[in-house]
Amino acid sequence: MSELFTGAPVAKAIRASLEERIALLKQRGREPCLAILRCGEDPGALSYERAAIRGCELAGIQTRCIALPWTADTEELLHEVDRANGDSAIHGILVLRPLPRQIDTQRVFRRLRNDKDVDGITVPSLAGVFVGRDWGFAPCTAEACVAMLDHYGVPLSGSRVVILGRSLIVGRPLSMLLCARDATVTLCHSRTPDPAFLSRQADILISAVGKAGMVDEGFVHSGQIVLDVGVNEGIDGNICGDVAFDRVSPLVRAISPVPRGVGTVTTAILARHVVSAAENLF
Ligand code: NAP
User: Which residue, of 13, 129, 175, 188, has the greatest Cβ tally within 10 A?
Assistant: First the structure.
């Protein structure tokens, strides 16, 4: 039977590492605070908002939610970004996606202050990840995958990693974080011929595609560590990952479940970024 890499102990350890730092900030009169900006009521955005609030609350971090209607335009959202940028009581800003079609997403991201960009969506933050310098924050989910592997003692140096998905919030920055840790990384996407064949060569397989059950027996081997980043609605209406868990878990060395896996760690990383942003803003 494979080992289960659940997110809760990882998140707990991250939050424990923040306690002293938060206490110090509070002593200096600063309550770390995250602003969450959202348009509309997308279920995925609402679910991430609830998780982010809970992750921050558990760590002792304040949150402020600013919700605009789905009909909001770019100027309205930019106005809220400007307010959060200029508010010295707010240290981190999370802009939830999806944003409505009429909003110029790139303009919104460019307006965000880099030092408050706790989810690593601005170009300077991503540049920092790609150059390997501490210029900002990495996207929380990408960092959560690395935290998960570190927590469970998976060696990265010299390991062969296959990542399914090349988005700017997961696959691409994760490839750079792992490359910086001396892993050999293969990044697959929708045009990759035979991703299952490539996946079978990996010591560590990470799926961030968004297709329920796509990763099946044909993608894995018995010595493999599998991290499932996908969050999908299964045919039974329940949340599930990209990995066909029941079929794959008996075949691999270790696997993270969905829910209770990487997502749990993502919000703890978010909390850590808010604390770092609050410290950096002195
Ligand atoms: P995205 O922007 O839609 O990217 C999906 C990626 O998967 C794309 O790069 C796409 O390739 C690739 N892809 C599609 N079909 C593929 C296939 N058959 N083989 C290999 N790659 C394929 O999605 P995302 O925002 O990165 O999110 C991915 C999943 O992670 C979603 O389920 C999302 O809900 C979840 N997620 C979880 C967390 C968390 O904290 N747990 C956080 C963020 C996202 P192309 O580039 O060629 O289109």
Answer: 129
Residue 1 resides in a domain: no
The pLDDT assigned to 135 comes to 82
Ligand 1, pocket-test mutation among 99, 121, 167, 233, most atoms within 8 A of CB = 167
Domain limits for position 69? 30-114
Structure tokens at 121: 């969506």
What pTM was computed for the model?
0.97
CATH code (residue 186): 3.40.50.720
Confidence of residue 181 (pLDDT cuts 50, 70, 90): very high
pLDDT of residue 98: 94
Please report the pLDDT score of residue 133 as a whole number: 79
Q: Is the C-beta atom of 195 inside 6 A of ligand 1?
A: yes
